[in-house]
Amino acid sequence: MTVQKTSADLYQDYVEKMQKIADVRNAMSVLGWDQETYLPPAGATFRGRQLTTLSTIAHELFADESLGGLLRELGNRTDLSAIQQKNVALSLEDYEKNRKYPAAFVAEMSSATNAAYHAWIKARKENNFAVFEPLLAKMVDLKKREADILGYTGHPYDALLNEYERGADVQMLDTIFRDVKNSLLPLLQQIALRDVPDRKFLARHYPKDQQWEFGLGILRSMGYDFNAGRQDVSEHPFTTSFNPRDVRVTTRIDEQDLGNMTWSCIHEGGHALYEQGLPAEEYGLPCGEAASLGIHESQSRLWENNVGRSLIFWQHHYGNLQGIFRSNLLAVPLQNFYKAINLVQPSLIRTEADELTYHFHVMIRYEIEKGLLDGSLQTKDLRDIWNQYYLDYLQVKVPDDLRGVLQDIHWSHGSFGYFPTYSLGSFYAAQLYNTAVKQVPGLENAIASGNYNTLLEWLRNNIHRYGRFYTSNELCEKVTGEKLSFKHFLAYAEKKYGGIYELNEQ
Amino acid sequence: MTVQKTSADLYQDYVEKMQKIADVRNAMSVLGWDQETYLPPAGATFRGRQLTTLSTIAHELFADESLGGLLRELGNRTDLSAIQQKNVALSLEDYEKNRKYPAAFVAEMSSATNAAYHAWIKARKENNFAVFEPLLAKMVDLKKREADILGYTGHPYDALLNEYERGADVQMLDTIFRDVKNSLLPLLQQIALRDVPDRKFLARHYPKDQQWEFGLGILRSMGYDFNAGRQDVSEHPFTTSFNPRDVRVTTRIDEQDLGNMTWSCIHEGGHALYEQGLPAEEYGLPCGEAASLGIHESQSRLWENNVGRSLIFWQHHYGNLQGIFRSNLLAVPLQNFYKAINLVQPSLIRTEADELTYHFHVMIRYEIEKGLLDGSLQTKDLRDIWNQYYLDYLQVKVPDDLRGVLQDIHWSHGSFGYFPTYSLGSFYAAQLYNTAVKQVPGLENAIASGNYNTLLEWLRNNIHRYGRFYTSNELCEKVTGEKLSFKHFLAYAEKKYGGIYELNEQ
Q1: What are phi and psi of A197, to 5 degrees?
Q2: Which CATH number covers residue A494?
Q3: Is there a domain that residue A393 lies in?
Q4: How many domains does chain A have?
Q5: Residues of chain A with pLDDT under 70
Q6: Residue of A133, A146, A165, A268 marked active site
Q7: A220 near B CB under 8 A
Q8: Average pLDDT across chain B, whole number
């Protein structure tokens, strides 16, 4: 006689399987963190194979038939809580998506990615896109096939987007980027007519140790919990989480550029606060994970730009900063500092762009990816297309491939559909921040006095604690009362930069 | 028709399975290293479960029937190289030993260890052995059962010893420790009649950063490869290896005690040189692993004591050390420094003991473990037995349990049979060093001039490169021409301490 298992028992089985997978994936994250921070050079090769082994194990565990059976059985149970049901539904969706990939395809993609990455490194060394192009072409071909495997109703790009931002599609992005073009270009043109604020003082000598201490202080003031995290140094700043009680950030310090460390601390701090705010009791389950890349980026950008590049933020912190770097900053008034850290100027490199021109960098990549996916663009023409776009939208002439089409690592990794989430992050950030200011009385007064508790609490209650329970669209609508709309970012930009560049006083 | 696989193909299958297991185990080591160096406090709980999951996975992979079948099949093949045959034979031995443990026993041991460890922590807090005793009794019971599971012909302790030191047994250790007693006690009695050298200057203020730099310099001079390793700080110094290209050491720094950092650097450096010298091409296989704990310890102690506490070592380094810590050491002659770092004085704590009295600490533990295992001693009497032994052998009165029977973590971990390997390490070290000096012309001249290349090369060629190919006994006989004999350590001790304490001049 077979006794039917209770839903509670079945759910417990499911939780155990998922947490086991999470343990393996989080172990990979520890190895990855170590790789970027402390790994001795000669250890790289063996570390690579250790990561591959863990990845294979995690993949096998997640592709296990018995997990699928369990998920389908649980999907029929009606006596689960809403969160439990959501976990099961999302896990089943992930499971079935994962099972769609034929093993041969996974292997082909893995070796193509490896080859593309090394070709990209080589192409950068030789400053020659032609070295990378054939492997990029192969990658595009594979991504087209991946879109077919995953399935889509509209544009093939939708299938890839969905990997990073559930529910986003080409239709939504076309609308957003049309708004970007129509409304930001005129603003940039106005700004271009104004004098460029002085920012030379940001490039004076800022000793490493003092920068480091200042950055830690900022993180602490934001509410980042050093009991459940730490900061280290790496070549490229990043945030990684092994569980909500161990969320780590890294930064880099350039003694000739105060901004490098400052913005990475605040940006990664924003990502980390999100991860520290995810519900620990949902460890390993969808509701314990971030909603999407766009929402993740909204948290980092809200802190970096809406808070960290605001006048009220520096009203509180600037005196301290001046005290630390007296010879560099004592003669620089707050207003000049504020203008310098918000300089808007078209440039070549996405990661160095200001918060307005940044979105043209993303738009260019979005248009290119879309075109490659639907076949209207070819990789062999990519250098020319890239350079033309930069001339058209940013009025800059790309001098070489290194500062042009070879600047990002993403395509060599096979990450197509990732770039748009950066812009979505900024736009979500503006809309969320706007809502927070409306809903929380005295929020900006608190920020002006260096108190971020109320803001963090609002983010915890409205965003962090839900994990993946809502999609980014749903979450946005629930919290702000409307779908994502570019108008909030535009209003923010017009107000802020109108003030900085005195645009209404001409 | 089934085509029989070639031995080369079968061996390749075996290598892949073993390397996969090694990858998981080494990932655990990375997580363990992180736990002791950089883990934020709140991350400990999740880290614990991540380690348990990886441990379970590694165990399952190693217990897999298909691996057993493969090993047995390979065991019948005669067309394998000597190293391949040895790998297969040792893996099969490990595999069968691993399969002997019933799952219920493993679970019981795991929960008993956990309980014992926490009771030990609590007992130390309360400075009361009685808190730990019942859990230790349970542990002893389990270790007796483990000895039965593993099987033995002589003393049940042999089965446990064999886990750490293949081929060692009670008969061998009884002989060794009888020699220790008979010949070291008289030496200690002679030393006790002499004046105690001054060592107060070692407890002056030694700033952290300068100690750190000095330690790194010593490691570099020993030949430790920082391209394939690194040093960090942890509460208890240790060496860990993720593969021969990534072998890490840790140290601790006490600003009031120069010795703490110095000896941990050299000791762990010796362990690390062994791991860096293991054959990388045997990754994951027995011949890529250390021969035994005793041989491992022989490497650390050879560097720490035979080299690092020698007069010729400091003839080279002392000037530099004086230069760094001028106000502390400039007025201290080399001879006084040399005497101070070789002070012999009975004491309460094993880890702080000098290189002579140390072996009585080990002998006491050995006698106790043996008695517990064969039932001639009971845990309830352990405090009294311990204190009596310390009075008898070391003439020290144990003031409390913290400085007595509760000082070591080993029993709470279930590590019975581990302690003797510390002494074996010292005795192997003396015998090996003796042989090296005989075989390599000018070895001590090289050491006196700060050149350790020749010594390291000799260790690489005679010890490191063999991995587990030979047991410690076999290796010792092969390299030194005879079995392990205490006489080499005794000759070393008599010569060194006879000089320091001017024993022949009375």
Answers
A1: -60, 150
A2: 1.10.1370.30
A3: yes
A4: 3
A5: 1-2, 505-506
A6: A268
A7: no
A8: 96
Gap between the Cα atoms of A159 and B61, Å rounded: 36
What is residue A459's predicted lDDT score, i.e. its pLDDT? Answer: 98
- Residue B36 inside a domain? The answer is yes
CB contact under 8 A, A242 and B43: yes
Q: How would DSSP label each residue in A313-337?
A: HHHHHHHHHHHHTHHHHTTS-HHHH
Nearest CA in chain B to A283: B46
Tell me how far apart the terminal alpha carbons of chain A are, to the nearest angstrom: 86
Last residue of a domain, one of A389, A420, A451: A420
Contact A245 B27 (CB under 8 A): no
- The low-confidence residues of chain B, meaning pLDDT below 70, are 1-2, 505-506
Determine what percent of chain B is predicted with pLDDT higher than 90: 97
B226, A40: Cβ pair inside 8 Å? yes
Inter-chain touch B245–A43, beta carbons under 8 Å: yes
- Rounded-to-integer distance, Cα B282 and Cα B466, Å: 10
Which parts of B344-381 fold into alpha helices (H)?
358-374
Beta bridge partners of A247: A229, A241
A88 and A229 together in one domain: no
Same domain, A332 and A431: yes
Q: Minimal Cα–Cα distance from B277 to chain A, Å?
A: 14
Q: Which of A356, A311, A355, A306 is nearest to A333 (CA)?
A: A311
Tell whether A341 and A465 lie within a shared domain: yes
Residue B137 in domain: no
Amino acid identity at A49: R
Residues 52-81 of B with CB under 8 A from A: 52-54, 57
The one-character DSSP state at A477 is H
- In the stretch 269-308 of chain B, residues with CB closer than 8 A to chain A read 283
B133, B146, B165, B268: which one is catalytic?
Answer: B268
Residue A283 and residue A265 in one domain: yes
Indicate whether A440 belongs to any domain: yes
Q: What is the ipTM of this complex?
A: 0.93
Partners of A42 on chain B (C-beta within 8 Å) are: 225, 227-228, 245-246
Q: Among A23, A30, A242, whose Cβ lies nearest the Cβ of B53?
A: A23
Cβ pair A285, A18 in contact under 8 A:
yes
Task: Give the model's pLDDT for residue B480.
Answer: 98
Q: Which of residues 229-248 of B touch A (CB under 8 A)?
A: 229-230, 232, 242-243, 245-246, 248
Residue whose pair of structure tokens reads 């049309």 in the numeric block: A178
- Strand ranges of the sheet holding A246-251, from the earlier edge strand across to the other edge: A229-233, A246-251, A239-243
Q: The domain containing residue A68 runs over which residues?
A: 7-143
In chain A, % helix, strand, coil (3-state, to 5) comes to 70, 5, 25
- Residues A180, A259, single domain; the answer is no
Contacts (Cβ under 8 Å, ≥6 apart) of A495: none
B268 counts as catalytic: yes
Could you give the residue ranges of the DSSP H alpha helices within B330-399? 334-340, 358-374, 382-394
Please, which contacts does A208-216 make with residues 24 or more away whose CB atoms are closer than 8 Å?
A208/A253, A208/A255, A210/A324, A210/A325, A211/A253, A211/A255, A211/A258, A211/A261, A211/A262, A212/A253, A212/A261, A213/A324, A214/A261, A214/A262, A214/A320, A214/A321, A214/A324, A215/A251, A215/A261, A215/A262, A215/A265, A216/A265
B283 → closest Cβ in A46, A226, A232: A46
Q: Give chain A positions within 8 Å (CB) of B57.
A: 24, 57
B45: contact with A, CB 8 A cutoff? yes
| Tens of pLDDT, residues A243-302 | 999 999 999 999 999 999 999 999 999 999 999 999 999 999 999 999 999 999 999 999
The pLDDT value given to residue A505: 57
Tokens of A48: 């690579």
Same domain, A313 and A406: no
